[in-house]
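Hello,

Our lab assistant flagged a job as stuck in the queue for most of the afternoon. It eventually completed. Since we weren't sure the result was trustworthy after the delay, we are filing this so someone can double-check. Below is the sequence as submitted and the structure that was eventually returned. Let us know if re-running is recommended.
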Amino acid sequence: MRTSSWRAWRASLAAAACLAIMSVARAEDIDIYSLPPGEADLPNVLFLIDNSANWSADLANGYCTQWPDSGAAVPNADNSKKSGAQICALVTVVERLAARAAANGGNPVARIGVMMFNSGSSKIGAYPRINFTAVTPVNKAALQTKLKAISRGGDTAAAAPDVGLGMYEAYLWFKGQPAQYGRDTPSFDPDAFLPASTSYSSPASASCGRNFIIFISNGDPATQTQTVNAERAFLQQIGGNTTAIPAPSGVNNPTRNLFASWGDEYARELLIQDFSSRDGAQSITTFGVAVIGANSDPNNT
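-- returned structure --
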């Protein structure tokens, strides 16, 4: 393991997800978590992982060969790949959140969930891989075990992620509405749904806690006509603004056509919608973490 580059990469994700507990003043990378008054109002943080073909790419540096919590070996299928580095980083996030909880009298400081894109070349959309869990020292090991069960060997999705459809499925989860694609992969977490129902169990519907999506990108989004048309139709269905966000100058490559995806328009919409029955507006703030080789690619964030 090349510790310097791996630790730097791991710290970037952990910082976006964990080290920000100390600040709630502004919607920046340092304000994801606050110290809440009770578990019902914990911040809800959803990691949307791009498990498309690109997460199988080799990392020249920054890879992870040992699990950061135990030192045990990461399986060979993932230990030099983007997939292994990202799961290692999430294991670290859980480790740090559990430590924060221990320092808070054993009371959790955040609730996290994991969503992935449906596995199989003929499937689209995303599914809940790990239900929202309030991280404590008691459940830390069980949650890390669930994360370590994720592998590119059995969990790789299509060639490119349907980012807009993933964001739509996340919307449905936070709203507590019936799944669109969330039960299409057998490894979905049944605890993400209400008992004997195809409707999601919302982590936000009766909470004043803040809500976040951290999208971990490994490459270009899907821009096939069928996909982007479905993304736009669902956005319109939820009353969203379907005015396309223009590409920043110098970012959009006409050949790759990155901004045909509606993922960014969903992020805009989730920021203004209310996901709770409680007073005030509890919206969702979205962050992007791009992993392209050893560097972040601004085209994907």
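-- support follow-up --
The delay was a queue issue, not a problem with the job. The result is valid. Residues 71 and 104 are 26 Å apart (CA to CA). The two ends are 27 Å apart (CA to CA).
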